[in-house]
Design goal:
alpha/beta, Nucleotidyltransferase, domain 5, 2 domains, 5-stranded mixed sheet, 28% helix, globular
Length: 210
C-alpha cells in the first residue's frame, strides 16, 4: 500500500476527484453537472486512480466533501466514502467546503458557499457557519478577505479583497485528509445548515377501506 489519498466531492453542480501523495497532486478531475453525480462518481474515481497509476489497494485514506451544499449531492459522496472505507479497511475523513476553500491561503478569509435563493453560507476563523442574504451580509465582515461563491461581489460590497482558492476543491479535500490521516476523526457526516427543500405532503393520507 502506498501513502496515496483519494479525495472527492459532489456537494454542488459538479463531480470532482483527486489523488495526492506526500503533498503532491497525482491526478485531478472536475466535471460540471447539475445531475447524474451518483452515476458518474465511481467511474471518475477509477479514472483518476488509473491516471495516477494506482489501484484501490494503493490508498491509505479517503477524503470526502461534507458540504454544505446540495442535500442529495452531499449524501452521494458521504455514502460512497463510508462504503469504500469499509471495504478497503482505510479511514474516511470528512472535509467541509469551508475548510477546503480556505486551505493553503496565507491570510485569514471569509469562505462563501452558494446557498441559492440569493443567499450564501459563510464561515471564518472567528465566525461559526451561518446563512446570510447576499443583499445583507454581516457588517462585521467589512474589510476582510473573501474566497468562494460571489467573493468579488462580497468584497466590493464590504470594502474587502477577493482571493482565489489555492487548490481545486477535490485537491484541497485530499490534501486536508492526508494531513489529518493518523489522527482520530469522526465518521464523515453531511454538514446541513438548513432544512431540506423537500417536505412531506400536507395532504391527508388516503382512507384505507376495510
Amino acid at each position: 500500500m502506498t501513502d496515496a489519498v483519494l479525495g472527492f466531492d459532489t456537494s454542488a453542480a459538479h463531480c470532482a476527484a483527486a489523488v495526492v501523495s506526500d503533498g503532491q497532486i497525482l491526478a485531478s478531475r472536475t466535471e460540471a453537472m447539475e445531475k447524474g453525480q451518483a452515476e458518474r462518481l465511481m467511474p471518475m474515481l477509477e479514472e483518476v486512480l488509473a491516471e495516477a497509476g494506482l489501484t484501490w489497494r494503493d490508498l491509505s485514506a479517503i477524503g470526502v466533501g461534507t458540504g454544505p451544499g446540495n442535500f442529495t449531492g452531499v449524501r452521494i459522496s458521504v455514502a460512497a466514502a463510508r462504503g469504500l472505507a469499509l471495504s478497503l479497511g482505510i479511514p474516511a475523513i470528512g472535509v467541509t467546503t469551508f475548510d477546503a476553500l480556505s486551505f493553503g491561503l496565507s491570510a485569514p478569509v471569509v469562505t462563501l458557499v452558494d446557498a441559492r435563493r440569493d443567499a450564501v453560507w459563510l464561515a471564518a476563523q472567528d465566525l461559526s457557519p451561518m446563512q446570510a442574504d447576499l443583499s445583507a451580509l454581516p457588517d462585521n465582515l467589512r474589510g476582510r478577505h473573501f474566497v468562494g461563491h460571489v467573493a468579488e461581489a462580497a468584497a466590493t460590497a464590504l470594502g474587502g479583497t477577493a482571493v482565489a482558492p489555492a487548490h481545486p476543491l477535490a485537491v484541497a479535500i485530499a490534501l486536508i485528509a492526508e494531513a489529518r490521516r493518523g489522527t482520530p476523526q469522526p465518521r464523515p457526516a453531511p454538514l446541513y445548515l438548513r432544512a431540506a427543500d423537500a417536505a412531506p405532503s400536507s395532504d391527508p393520507p388516503p382512507v384505507i377501506l376495510p
